[in-house]
Specification:
nine-stranded parallel β-sheet, eight-stranded parallel β-sheet, 31 strands
Length: 488
């Protein structure tokens, strides 16, 4: 072999040795990469699983919240009823004494509690918790009688069979809501409503309180919602939440228990219904058959002028006018007075009538001035300031405190006759410059000019008026402000 070929052979030898060394390094690197990819894939799958699980849990959590919210609102409507009074009797409801609302007797479970071992998280704490005395009422839509085919037994939770959007839920998954109500304070007519929404393992428990109220600040008989009231001017309405002016169907409109007549059936004709009145023997005698004038300083030579005296009851089969006598220099001031005329009552000029009720069989006319004279008419709660069998009008800037009621129902025993229009004037309230602190009832309610109609932000303004019945069939249960809360 020539000497010049030796370096070439040496070079080839070294190249082969290098290839042998590289082959031993690539294999471990390949295995390492495969292992790393396997670990990464497992990690990715685990991450994807966790992400999906978190998304599902978040979805279920929101779905449970919305189911509970739907249950609350449905419960508010279900407990929306009235008895023979303005507000429902929540104590009777929660005590199982109201037809269609059975009480809950079930034991704590995951269907009615977030945690059955923690009774405060139950949809019916009144059943388990001594700090919430009483029972829980099951809503009508969770009774077998009122929701046949969707509820198998009273108190069964609502499932997708009774969901408006039932297709949004997988039939195999758990999706429920459960609603109960329990009394808080019967004197204030408050009812707590709780709803538990459940989607798979997620639960949401919500609560709010509702107040039974179906009267508005102004209440018009009939169905003309566009003219209740008919306002001409810059009138200001102030009312508590849930009590705007409203139209009430004839069948549900509050009405007098008996017509305004000289009858024992008429609540306002019985002076014994007004415990603050003095004995009839100590009050002036009202002559019959003539129009009379009530005044603090009567002219004793005029038989029609009668002394206006505290805590007295005045009834006349003719018209009554409260006015100053010819030479009177002081205002007519009285308290605890009941004035009842089968005809028209007119309140004239300067007067300050406290704890006073005015009843007119045909009309009550308010003709006294508050702005310039400081005159006013204030009724004792819950009695009305004014009740009329037909018409309520005014002629000055008056101030009244207490309900004003003009009956939209004709009285066959004392019908409106000339100069009244028996159709247009029946139940008509037509007031101009005024300040009214109380709710108003009538068929045709019209306000003109500037003024204020307010309930003084007082729930008690909507209490039932004595001598007036409130037919069942119309109610609005309003949510009490600042009571909505998420229990869990």
């Amino acid at each position: 072999m020539p000497d010049g070929s030796r370096p070439a052979a040496s070079w080839m030898h070294r190249l082969g040795a290098s290839h042998r060394r590289d082959g031993g390094f690539v294999l471990p690197m390949t295995i390492l990469l495969v292992v790393m990819l396997a670990i990464s894939s497992t990690s990715f799958f685990q991450h994807d699983y966790l992400e999906r699980r978190m998304a599902t849990t978040e979805f279920d959590n929101h779905a449970a919240f919305y189911l509970a919210s739907a249950g609350l609102e449905r419960g508010r409507i279900s407990y929306d009823f009235s008895l023979q009074r303005n507000q429902p009797d929540w104590k009777a409801l929660a005590g199982g004494q109201t037809a269609g609302f059975p009480i809950d007797t079930s034991a704590p479970s995951l269907q009615n509690c977030v945690d059955p071992s923690n009774l405060s998280t139950c949809v019916c704490p009144a059943l388990y918790n001594p700090t919430h005395p009483g029972n829980c009422a099951i809503p009508r839509f969770q009774t077998a009688m009122n929701n046949a085919g969707k509820i198998d037994f009273d108190g069964q939770p609502v499932d997708p069979r009774d969901f408006p959007a039932a297709g949004a839920f997988d039939p195999s998954q758990i999706a429920l809501y459960n609603v109960r109500a329990f009394g808080i304070d019967d004197a204030d007519y408050l009812l707590a409503v709780r709803a538990l929404g459940t989607v798979r393992n997620e639960r949401k428990l919500l609560e709010f309180q509702i107040r039974g109220r179906w009267l508005g600040l102004v209440n018009c008989e009939g169905n003309d919602i566009n003219n209740c009231p008919n306002t001409k001017g810059s009138l200001i309405y102030h009312y508590v939440d849930g009590s705007p002016p409203r139209q009430i169907p004839t069948a549900s409109f509050p009405r007098l228990n008996a017509p305004l007549s000289d009858s024992a059936n008429n609540y306002y004709r019985q002076r014994t219904n007004f415990a603050w009145l003095d004995s009839a023997a100590t009050c002036p005698i009202v002559p019959i058959g003539i129009d009379i004038v009530l005044t603090s300083e009567p002219d004793l030579t005029k038989p029609e002028e009668i002394k206006l005296q505290d805590n007295c009851y005045y009834f006349s089969d003719h018209n009554i006018t409260v006015d100053q006598s010819k030479n009177q220099s002081t205002d007519n001031v009285a308290t605890g007075v009941v004035i009842f005329s089968m005809g028209k009552v007119t309140l004239n000029r300067h007067m300050q009538l406290t704890n006073t009720i005015v009843i007119g069989g045909k009309e009550v006319h308010l003709n006294f001035n508050y702005t310039s004279q400081g005159s006013f008419l204030k009724a004792p709660h819950p009695y009305p300031a004014v009740i009329s069998g037909g018409l309520v009008t005014d002629g000055d800037n008056h101030y009244t405190s207490g309900p004003i009621y003009a009956s939209p129902f004709a009285d066959p025993g004392n019908p409106l006759t000339s100069p009244y229009d028996p159709v247009a004037d029946q139940g008509r309230v037509n007031l101009s410059g005024k300040e009214i602190h109380g709710i108003v009832f009538g068929r045709n309610v019209q306000f003109q000019g500037n003024g204020l109609v307010t309930d003084d932000n007082n729930e008690n303004a909507y209490d039932a008026i004595p001598g007036v019945s409130y037919p069942p069939g119309l109610a609005t249960s309003s949510i009490e402000p600042k009571t909505w809360k998420e229990i869990h």
